[in-house]
Write a structure and sequence with these properties.
The chain is an alpha/beta fold. Helix content is 34%, strand content 23%.
Length: 315
């Protein structure tokens, strides 16, 4: 294994992405003080197309493709992604070197600052909520069919500004991103997974590396959090089997409780009128197989018809 004195981290350029890559850089520097670490910002397709919903512009590697190209081209040595942005089938020649300990997986409701709602239930009938996620839209409409949902894109700073300039009642975001940017004070309510199941991998960071780079594999290995790896492996296995992406409303939450792996999942129609839920439990080491088993159960229980309808709409 060749030892190197410098590595380059590839990242998106948003405040949250830079926070994530800087956190990884600091952890690596703490573990390897002699190592020189540089960060390289790369613009992805998802960052460049901001005037269309994610569901309309495809889902395979929207926020990762250009970064992976740099990784394969040896212009960077590792990439830091939000795990929820990383496709379940990785590009040949690449692997996940480490999955970091997960932040809070839940979504949050953020009220319009002039309306100051303390909870989602305080929003009056026919209120307007912003989200760029079909997963959130589906589950929210299932809970409150009276809501009007508006699409919102852009990084967290952009979304916050759009909310403040709008007449909307509020928006939904992932708690992990809001917390990492130091914005906890704008959270009106943390939404339980029983109300809205999170996205696959939400709250975890993935460190992607070249499969044949033994040196980088060795330096990122200490950042691996085995419990998060097991939990998200189950989630990603379920998503892979369902062939879901940005255009399909799928929520899932895997965790280890009392030594058991538990996985909840939901597949729903975009309007929230049809919902199929399921759960499974077993050994943490078997989380991948359990995720696939639950996916099969969901399909048998009606998710296949929902997914087929959504795919037909997209064609």
């Amino acid at each position: 294994m060749t030892s190197r004195t410098k590595i380059v981290i590839g990242t998106r350029g948003s405040d949250l992405a830079l926070w994530q890559s800087n956190w990884v850089a600091e952890e690596l520097h703490r573990l390897h003080p002699a190592l020189s670490i540089e960060t390289k910002t790369i613009k992805t397709t998802g960052d460049q197309i901001l005037d269309s919903p994610l569901s309309k512009i495809g889902d395979k590697g929207l926020f990762t493709k250009e970064i992976e190209r740099a990784l394969l081209g040896n212009t960077i040595d590792l990439a830091v992604h939000s795990l929820k942005d990383l496709p379940t089938n990785l590009t040949d020649g690449l692997t996940i070197g480490a999955i970091t300990e997960r932040e809070d997986v839940r979504d949050v409701f953020i009220s319009h600052p002039m309306k100051k709602y303390t909870s989602l239930s305080a929003v009056p009938k026919r209120g307007t909520i912003a989200t760029g996620s079909l997963r959130r839209k589906c589950q929210l409409l299932n809970h409150r069919p009276d809501f009007t949902i508006v699409d919102i894109r852009g990084n967290l700073k952009t979304r916050r500004a759009k909310l403040e300039e709008s007449d909307w009642d509020g928006m939904l975001l992932a708690k992990a991103g809001v917390t990492r940017l130091g914005w906890a004070e704008i959270i009106s309510e943390v939404l339980p997974p029983t109300l809205i199941l999170p996205a696959v991998g939400q709250g975890a960071l993935a460190i992607e590396i070249r499969s044949d780079d033994a040196f980088v594999a060795s330096i990122v290995k200490p950042l691996e959090h085995i419990i998060t790896r097991q939990a998200t492996t189950g989630e990603r296995s379920l998503l892979r089997y369902l062939e879901g992406g940005c255009q399909i409303p799928i929520g899932t939450y895997g965790r280890i409780e009392s030594g058991k792996f538990i996985l909840d999942a939901v597949v729903g129609s975009i309007d929230g009128k049809k919902i199929v839920r399921g759960a499974i439990a077993g050994e943490p080491a078997d989380s991948g197989n359990l995720g696939e088993t639950l996916a099969k159960e969901l399909l048998v229980n009606g998710a296949d018809a929902i997914l087929e309808e959504i795919r037909t709409m997209g064609n």
